[in-house]
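User: Okay, second chain of the day. Same drill as before: sequence in, structure tokens out.
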Amino acid sequence: MRLCVISHSYLEPGRIPILESMATYPGVELAWITPAELRGDLKFSGTSSAFHSYSIPVHFGSRQGAFLYNARNLEEALDDFRPEIVLHEQEVYALSAVQVAYVAESRSIPLVMFVWENLHRSLALPRKWMTAYVLRRCSALIAGSSQADQVHRDWGFQGPVETIPTMGGRINLKPEFGRRGNPVLKVCYAGRLVGYKGVDCLLRAVAILHRNHLPIQCVVAGQGPELQKLTDLSGTLGIRHLVEFCGSLSGDGVASLFRQSDVLVLPSRRTPKWEEQFGRVLAEAMAEGTVTVGSRTGAIPEVIGTSELLFEEDDSNGLAEILRRLADDSDFFMANQRQLWMRAKEEFDNDILTARRIRFLQEILEHKAGG
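Assistant: Same drill. Structure tokens below.
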């Protein structure tokens, strides 16, 4: 199968292994088209000779959803590679989605869109037109979550949709099971320090447990506009000595943090324009045998898959109760630790996600050939 992936998503270092997994999949010859302005100096660990890369200039800047590829370069890349199918990883209301849909249709190439949008957001009339245009020309969709699937069904798509997580990771095949910080419960957060990530809720839960004399430590990894506010809050709550703000970490640094932690907490809160679309740190922590706890927001419940590890948005008391139980009940901790690791191994491993994508794309091609 000659597969062309058009995406800026793999420009994140943590996602490169997914692209490499597709490029080395048996029977697949892959081309990757990406915006030149965002490309940077990416390092691939060893892609096969069946991997082709095209870096194409864009117009109107690189802002998500607002750029267009240089039309001549895009057409030349497709004509040079001659794909059997195109996978475009972009929201359907983006300018480039319209462009790719038009170019693919003009060459009779089946188009599959990989979509993340999980909100029934209010679209301006031009965006509504672009959405309808793209969806009419898609052979199929891959949705990053069941919420994304439903949103695009509600927007009128009636073709095949496969729900496949946006991203996964490499599984630690020999994780350390059991508490890592006994008797101290070692809790962490990794991600952007912005209001909608809800890190203040985590700090309030730590303060509740500290007042109840539960030994606990918290590491907050990441940067963002809320850093000083969160630092000040930890002081106000009387837990500044229990919280380490360690800044941004490399991929290896994040994995090391998870291996040293008992629990990762993702306390995201929804906004009118955003809900958690996946929460990659959840899958990465689960892959290291770290217990994951999250708010009932967006795709978080779908990723964790265990209601006992979920709390309502902004409910610091609910979060504190889950953490208390994990600290006090070793059977509860171990059962969830092993269950989450197995879930990551079976559902979020990069190679498993790649196989699911490739099988679905092959099915779409076979259906087109038979139809």
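The chain has a mean pLDDT of 92.

User: Thanks, on to the next one.
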